[in-house]
Amino acid sequence: MAGTSRSAGRTLVVFGIGVAVLFGLVALAGSWKPALGLDLQGGQRITLRAADDDVSSEALDEAADIVNRRVNGSGVAEADVTTQGDTNIVVEIPGESNQALVEVVRRQAQLRFRLVACSTVRQGPCAGAQEPAPGDQAPDGQNPDGQNPDGQNPDGQNPDDPTGSANRPAPALAADDETTPTEDPTGSPQDGTQEGGRQAPADVEEALAFKDAPGQPSITAFSQATCPLEERPDDGPGEPLVTCDDDGVKYLLSPSVVEGTQLTSAEAGQDARAIDWQVQLGLDDAGARAFGTVSQALVNGRQQFAIVLDGTVISAPTMEAVITDGRASISGDFNEQTATDLATSLKFGALPVAFEDDPKNDTIGPSLAGNQLSAGIWAGVVGLLVVMLYCLLYYRGLGTVVIASLLTAGVITYGMVLLLSQGAGFTVSLPGIAGLIVAVGITADSFIVFFERIRDEMREGKSMRVAVEAGWLRARNTCLAADTVSLLAALVLYIFAIDEVRGFAFTLGLVTLIDLVVFFFFTKPLVTWLGRFAFFHRGHRLSGLDAENLGLDRLPGVAAGGAR
Amino acid sequence: MSRFSRLGSALYEGEVSVDFVGRRRTWYAVSAVLIVIAMFGLFAKGLNFGIEFEGGTEYAVTLPADQVTQDTADRLREEIAALGIEDAEQPVVTTSGAEAILVQTESLELDEVDRVSAVIQEVTGATADDLSLSNIGASWGRDIIERAVLGLVVFLVLVVLFIWAYFREWKASVASLVALGHDVVITVGIYALSGFEVSPATVTGLLTILGFSLYDTVVVFDKVRENTADLRARRTTYARAANLAVNQTLVRSINTTVVALLPVAAILWVGVVQLGSGSLKDLALALFVGMAAGAYSSIFIATPLLVQLKSGEKEIRLAEKRAGSRRPRAGKAAQAPAKTGGTSGATSRPEPAPARPVRASASAKRTQPSRQTRAKRGKR
């Protein structure tokens, strides 16, 4: 028996070291307060749900990435964009709310066609006197380390190299090969500019003028900007735009000539010879008219225009033909995948996934959040205290074991929550707190099963110390089975739980696991170790294991009278 | 407390015994009544689905306690209705707990949301910080229900498999599933009667109950299995052994239930009194009712049902017969006496350990050996 209690002592020491290590890690992580969820610190949560249930996780991730850029580009600091489940994207802004953001998130991406006045690969009018515009030279690289006309970067320049995206030629825009322009759009392109389309066409002349002479303020803005831009530029349709593409090429762009809303179709397809992949576009009437004008102006000298998505240039093709029927194709160094991607972006407005019109919008005012936090803490404190009190009243001396175990479990849980906050981005939400509180019951139950078993064994006539070991063997199995069920429930809940309530399942499962650890490596050794003391093994009146309490005339193995 | 502890001992020894198994008709009847009440609540009153299911816009305004009055609520209702927004013509304005007022409308457009927010701030003098809102489209709820149902099905399948694997007994699976259904129906019914809003938290609570109900049943069945392991050697019937098992775990069941319910009650109290609305309250009510029903059903429904299901088995019937020939009067185990005196403890308890009369001697004051013989100790 002495051996058992010595090894119990050892287990306790090792357990203590384990807890110390846990908190050592917490100290390394450096935060002693858990990260609070939105419902406890206030803030706004916008949830987008895909219109179609069948969305690939890559597409969802990509969409989340785009939403993230969009939100953070709109000047909201610290917005947190994550995917949730198979279909949702959640935007969370802790600590503040901004109803306008719903619009930012919800709106389809802004797709605009603009004319390129200058770019870092083709200085154009921005080059000033010392650098004449190489107007007749097709740009040969969109990429930052690709060629610069001034030869700043001479190596790696190989415009004819079809492989290697670093040197991919700029896409070219041509009349759609597959549909010859049999019918002329009503009215000449010039007429279109006078009649005016929805927004853009009226500005076409202005845009064309801008392309050739952007004016000093724009040129200054262009030369001062560096790629990548720190903030998403303000993509106003009537304003010129200084922006970059993903490869780091900087552009000065004219006001918008065609809006994304004028785009009627975008498909990936192959050209007539079925060799190269291209993206085929369809424009509505007004768009077609504007585009016709632009193409006439640009085709001469194969100048570039840019397709701008949410302020970022996604493609800057040259104009290779006059396109008046609104059907154009962007060709270039596409393969099937990149062509499809671009078509998808154009079609769905940046997001590769179509989302339902009404995002879910939750805003939690800091006042309510404060109330909820204090309510959660109150419920926790009260719940824990009444459980401790009940156990103390019923189990007396053993009740202190319950209290010690609950406190230990609490300390470990707190440590784990801190670690998970730091390491895995876990945040404590109100349902999470509820899960912790409910788990107090589960944890205490393990001890009750154990103690009742010990008492049963003593009623069978075993001494306290023997009863502890015998009772342990049986209580252990019961608790393992019961905790398995709890874990199973928590797991299923976690997988199927809805949105915010998931925190409940998580903490419930977490505490169930911690309960097992505490039960095996703290409670059991503690009871064994306490068995060394006469207070317990001789059945002191307050130990909870005295004869009267057990309903026996006297304790087995203890002289009548016991340790009173 | 100590009287309760003594009761535990008496229950363990079989001195005091509640006839859970034999009087099953009574318990079934009690449950039937509860279920009828629940059904009444469910169909007559109906569940009050929250905006997560129906769509809508809900504002919660946190105010000083003296401002949370019916008067403020009435003024808010009039002012918002006066805005002339179609979806906010009939706002539902209620006080919620001590420090908040809730305003619910149909789902609003963005600019309408702002207009209603402005009116609320104007009427109550609250700042933007005091204002919380949820705006949810009508189609949103579809998802929640689908996932809840899917979760339920997956959980039930897992549970059946787990219990079957643990007890090697499909009848145990059936009995615990029936108990589970019983708990869920009662919880849903009482929830409907309470008029609380059904939110995702409610659904979570309901799914959690499944775990708890089962957990309780597993513990009780574990003891039943232990007690009924070797009916012949114990000279008892399955029904009596099972009943003893329930009695022996009764104290634990009560303690467990109390200990589990106390924290939930704390959450419920805080949720209702302090917050008045929201996920805490919904979760806690579902859990509270469900846990209580779960404790009841594992004792009063699951075990008697298990006995009933197993009563047809050959082995069990043989044990009944043996018992019948031993004690003709108590032939039918189902009619075992509700309370057996201390003397009959020996018959209802499989392994009595009576203190042998010991002759007074010089060593009489020494504790007498209480170990049982090797044969009786067995390998339990």
From TrEMBL, chain A:
Pfam families on file: SecD_1st (PF21760), SecD_SecF_C (PF02355), SecDF_P1_head (PF22599)
Gene Ontology MF term list: protein-transporting ATPase activity
Domain Protein translocase subunit SecDF P1: 61-117
Coiled coil stretches, renumbered: none
Subcellular localization(s) per the UniProt record: Cell membrane
Domain SecDF P1 head subdomain residues, every copy: 244-353
InterPro entries: SecD (IPR005791), SecD/SecF_arch_bac (IPR022813), SecD_1st (IPR048631), SecD_SecF_C (IPR048634), SecD_SecF_C_bact (IPR055344), SecDF_P1_head (IPR054384)
Location (main, coarse): membrane
Keywords: Cell membrane, Membrane, Protein transport, Translocation, Transmembrane, Transmembrane helix, Transport
Domain Protein export membrane protein SecD/SecF C-terminal span(s) in chain numbering: 359-531
Membrane topology field: Multi-pass membrane protein
GO cellular component: plasma membrane
HAMAP family associated with the record: SecD_B (MF_01463_B)
Free-text function comment from the UniProt entry: Part of the Sec protein translocase complex. Interacts with the SecYEG preprotein conducting channel. SecDF uses the proton motive force (PMF) to complete protein translocation after the ATP-dependent function of SecA.
Subunit structure: Forms a complex with SecF. Part of the essential Sec protein translocation apparatus which comprises SecA, SecYEG and auxiliary proteins SecDF. Other proteins may also be involved.
Name of the protein this chain belongs to: Protein translocase subunit SecD
Organism: Nocardioides donggukensis
TrEMBL record, chain B:
Gene Ontology molecular functions: protein-transporting ATPase activity
Subcellular location(s) of the protein: Cell membrane
InterPro entries: SecD/SecF_arch_bac, SecD/SecF_bac, SecD/SecF_CS, SecD_SecF_C, SecD_SecF_C_bact, SecF_bac
Cellular component aspect of the GO annotation: plasma membrane
Regions crossing the membrane: 26-44, 148-167, 174-194, 200-221, 258-277, 283-307
Role of this protein: Part of the Sec protein translocase complex. Interacts with the SecYEG preprotein conducting channel. SecDF uses the proton motive force (PMF) to complete protein translocation after the ATP-dependent function of SecA.
Name under which the protein is recorded: Protein-export membrane protein SecF
Source organism of the structure: Nocardioides donggukensis
Gene (name only): secF
